[in-house]
Amino acid sequence: MVTLPFLPDRLNREPVVWRGLTTSELFLALAAGIGGGGMFGIMLALLTGTWPLIPVSALAGAALLIQGGGRILARARRNKPDNWLPQALLAWLERHHLRGAHLIQHSAVWVVRRSPR
């Protein structure tokens, strides 16, 4: 019988693929960058009348968010658990009332002794 002298807890972690981003985080940054860049491109296209600015701005937004966001996210995620990003996003949505109330967002001190009446 073989026993392992260590517990291989990193075997199930999602690997880092680009600038500190895992695959799911990379696709999230890509979608957010395309969405934000596309909105900016629509505003520019309405102002200038040049419609090819929409896809160019969407791709530029995605590239900027992936390049810059990876470094920022890796710094923010340092020494946190693997599921920190989805939980942080859900907590942000809860705080801004963009999602149903499913997470506990406050802390309180519980007192178990009787109070004098």
What does this structure look like?
With 117 residues, this protein is mainly alpha-helical. 54% of the residues lie in helices and 4% in strands. It has 3 helices and 2 strands. The protein has helices at residues 23-48, 53-77, 84-95, and strands at residues 16-18, 21-22. It has a two-stranded antiparallel sheet. Helix 1 (23-48) runs antiparallel to helix 2 (53-77). The longest helix is centred in the N-terminal third of the chain and has 26 residues, at 23-48. It starts with 15 loop residues before the first strand and ends in a 22-residue tail after the last helix. The model has no long low-confidence stretch (mean pLDDT 82).
At a glance:
This protein has helices at 23-48, 53-77, 84-95, and strands spanning 16-18, 21-22. It is mainly alpha-helical.
Secondary structure blueprint with pairings:
Elements: E1 16-18, E2 21-22, H1 23-48, H2 53-77, H3 84-95
Helix pairs in contact: 1-2
Features:
two-stranded antiparallel sheet, 54% helix, 3 helices, single chain
Mean pLDDT: 82
First and last CA, distance: 65 Å
Quickly give the structural class.
mainly alpha
Count of helical segments?
Answer: 3
Instruction: Describe the global form.
Output: flat
* SS elements, strand count: 2
Computed Rg: 22 Å
What percent of residues are in strands?
A: under 5%
Kindly state the percentage of residues in helix: 40-55%
